[in-house]
Design goal:
Number of strands: 12
Radius of gyration: 18 Å
CATH topology: TIM Barrel
Helix content: 25-40%
Strand content: 15-25%
CATH architecture: Alpha-Beta Barrel
CATH superfamily: Divalent-metal-dependent TIM barrel enzymes
Number of helices: 12
CATH class: Alpha Beta
Structural class: alpha/beta
C-alpha cells in the first residue's frame, strides 16, 4: 500500500467522503468558536491590535495565544476587552515550566486564562526515559498551576503516535501524568493524520480533553480549512461531553491567506450541527 492509499484509509471512523456531516439534521451546534492565533502570527507581528480586531469582526469570541509579541499582559487584556474577546488559553514553551513558571502563571491570570498548554517537546526527550522526565515536569507544573486556578494541558502532533517500548508516546504521557493536573488539548488534524481515531481516546480517557484544535485534512493528507476536508467533525463533536471539551480552536498551520482561512473555517463551523 502506498502513502496516498494509506492516508485515504487511515482512521476510517474519523473520515468521511461527502459533506453529509454538515447537514442541519441535528439541533446541537457550537455556541462559541475560538481560534489559535498561530494561524495569523505574521499579521500579529505587524499589527497586533488590528489583527485581533479583525479576528473579532469575523465572529470569533475566543482566542488562544501563541506568544504576546512583546506586549504586556495588562495591555493585551485591555485589547481583548475592547474587542469583546476572551483568551481562555495560551501556548507556552516547555522551557517556561522551570524558573519562569510563576511569572507565566501571573501573566495568564492577568489575561483571564483558565488553561496553559505546552505545545511541543524537543526531539531529544522523545525516549522512554526522556518522556518520564517530561511527565514529572508536567505533573509539577500542573500542581503549581492548579494552585493559581489554571489547568495545565499538552497539545499533540502526529509524532506522539510513534511507539516506544511497544506503546505510543501519547499513551505513555496520559498514563504517567495525573489526570487532574495534566489534561490534553487534542489536535484533531494531527491525531487523524497519525492514523488514530479521537473517539478511541475519548472512550479510554473520558473527560481528559477540555480543548481541541479544529483543523481539517484533505484525502491526500494536506491541511485545509475546516469543512473543506474529510474529517467527520459531526461524529467527533457528538462525543464532546464524554471527551470533556470546553473550547474549540480553529487553526491552520500555514494558510495562504490567514484571515480568509479562519473566516472560511468559522463560517463552516457555524453551519455544523451534531
Amino acid at each position: 500500500m502506498d502513502r496516498r492509499t494509506f492516508l485515504t484509509t487511515i482512521a476510517a471512523g474519523a473520515i468521511i467522503s461527502s459533506r453529509a456531516s454538515w447537514a442541519a439534521n441535528d439541533d446541537r451546534k457550537l455556541d462559541k468558536i475560538g481560534v489559535q492565533l498561530y494561524s495569523v502570527r505574521d499579521l500579529m507581528k505587524k499589527d497586533f491590535e488590528g489583527t485581533l480586531a479583525k479576528v473579532a469582526a469575523i465572529g470569533y469570541r475566543e482566542v488562544e495565544f501563541a506568544g504576546l509579541f512583546d506586549h504586556k499582559p495588562q495591555d493585551v487584556r485591555a485589547i481583548l476587552d475592547k474587542n469583546g474577546l476572551a483568551a481562555p488559553s495560551s501556548h507556552v514553551d516547555y522551557k517556561k515550566l522551570g524558573s519562569d513558571w510563576a511569572k507565566t502563571l501571573d501573566e495568564a491570570q492577568t489575561l483571564g486564562q483558565s488553561f496553559i498548554v505546552c505545545p511541543w517537546i524537543d526531539e531529544r526527550l522523545r525516549t522512554p526515559d526522556g518522556w518520564k522526565q517530561v511527565g514529572e515536569s508536567f505533573n509539577r507544573a500542573g500542581e503549581e498551576s492548579k494552585k493559581a486556578g489554571i489547568q495545565f494541558a499538552y497539545h499533540n502532533h502526529d509524532w506522539e503516535f510513534q511507539k516506544q517500548d511497544g506503546k505510543f508516546l501519547y499513551d505513555l504521557l496520559l498514563d504517567e501524568t495525573d489526570p487532574h493536573l495534566v489534561q490534553m488539548e487534542m489536535d484533531l488534524f494531527w491525531i487523524t493524520k497519525a492514523g488514530q481515531d479521537p473517539l478511541t481516546y475519548f472512550n479510554r480517557y473520558p473527560g481528559r480533553f477540555p480543548l481541541v484544535h479544529v483543523k481539517d485534512m484533505k484525502k491526500n493528507g494536506e491541511m485545509t480549512e475546516v469543512g473543506n476536508g474529510a474529517i467527520d467533525f459531526k461524529r467527533i463533536f457528538a462525543q464532546s461531553d464524554k471527551a470533556g471539551i470546553q473550547h474549540y480552536f480553529v487553526e491552520h498551520d500555514d494558510p495562504k491567506s490567514p484571515l480568509d482561512s479562519i473566516k472560511i473555517s468559522f463560517e463552516n463551523l457555524q453551519r455544523l450541527r451534531f
